[in-house]
Specification:
The complex is a heterodimer of chains A (116) and B (112). With 116 residues, chain A is mostly beta strands. Chain A contains no helices and twelve strands. In chain A, strands 2, 5, 6, 10, 11 and 12 form a six-stranded mixed beta sheet that branches. A four-stranded antiparallel beta sheet of chain A has the order 3-9-8-7, with no helix packed on it. In chain A, strands 1-4 form a two-stranded antiparallel ribbon. Chain A is globular, with a radius of gyration of 14 Å. The N and C termini of chain A lie far apart (40 Å). Chain B is mainly β. In chain B, the strands form two sheets. In chain B, strands 2, 4, 5, 6, 9, 10 and 11 form a seven-stranded mixed beta sheet that branches. A four-stranded antiparallel beta sheet of chain B has the order 1-3-8-7, with no helix packed on it. Classes of the chains: A mainly beta (116), B mainly beta (112). Chains A and B meet through strand 5, strand 6 and strand 11 of A and strand 4, strand 5, strand 9 and strand 10 of B.
């Protein structure tokens, strides 16, 4: 099955604190790509961070980092020093590249609230 | 440079009508994708174009949905005999080859 699961419908974090959003996925492939996207109320999907499965090192982009556990098929997003502008829906996604297709499978999302 | 644009931003129609949703990808991007996002859900894949041809249309829910990309740039998603269940945000994305996808702001379709 090609699934991506986000088990936290909603999370809250105090401004300047750290929060971790969870994501697990299903795959039989050994090499694949994982992504976290942010979707503010404007509906625009914005790439936050990406991870290539063959890379053992966890990806980092400024205040955003991932904890990629390949064996556990887990891909969590850590946001440090949370800011009010981080409030949005966050979607975890896996890129499917088999059988001549290229498409994302998305999770159901986590709504992040940042408290002042 | 300009990002992916989608028109209209919002579309309200009546049950049974025909609608067209337009996507202008980033210039030079050969791959184009359509997704549908229902309320409270993540986007779901509809169709993927590589150039002018649909390389994967397995996500189209039924034969009322059709998409074209005649010149390998702009794409139009067409929905015939709209139903209330078609109400959703329709997202378009493009990519230079087949890597990271860049999304447009979406079209919110409401079928009354």
């Amino acid at each position: 099955a090609q699934t991506v699961t986000q088990s936290q419908p909603e999370m809250s974090v105090q401004e300047a604190e750290t929060v971790t959003l969870s994501c697990t996925y299903d795959t039989s492939e050994s090499d694949y790509y994982l992504f976290w996207y942010k979707q503010p109320p404007s509906r625009q999907m914005i790439l936050v961070i990406r991870q290539e499965a063959y890379k053992q090192q966890n990806a980092t982009e400024n205040r955003f980092s991932v904890n990629f556990q390949k064996a556990a098929k887990s891909f969590s997003l850590k946001i440090s020093d949370s800011q009010l502008g981080d409030a949005a829906m966050y979607f975890c996604a896996r890129l499917i590249t088999t059988s001549g297709t290229y498409k994302y499978i998305f999770g159901t999302g986590t709504r992040l609230k940042v408290l002042a | 440079g300009a990002g992916v644009s989608q028109t209209p931003s919002n579309k309200v129609t009546e049950k049974g009508k025909y609608v067209e949703l337009r996507c202008d990808p980033i210039s030079g991007h050969t791959a184009l994708y359509w997704y549908r996002q229902s309320l409270g859900q993540g986007p779901e894949f509809l169709i993927y174009f590589q150039g002018t041809g649909a390389a994967d249309d397995s996500g189209l829910p039924n034969d009322r949905f059709f998409a074209v990309r005649p010149e390998g740039s702009v794409s139009t998603l067409k929905i015939q005999r709209t139903e209330r269940g078609d109400s959703a945000v329709y997202l378009c994305a493009s990519s230079p080859t087949t890597g990271e996808q860049f999304f447009g702001p979406g079209t919110r379709l409401t079928v009354l």
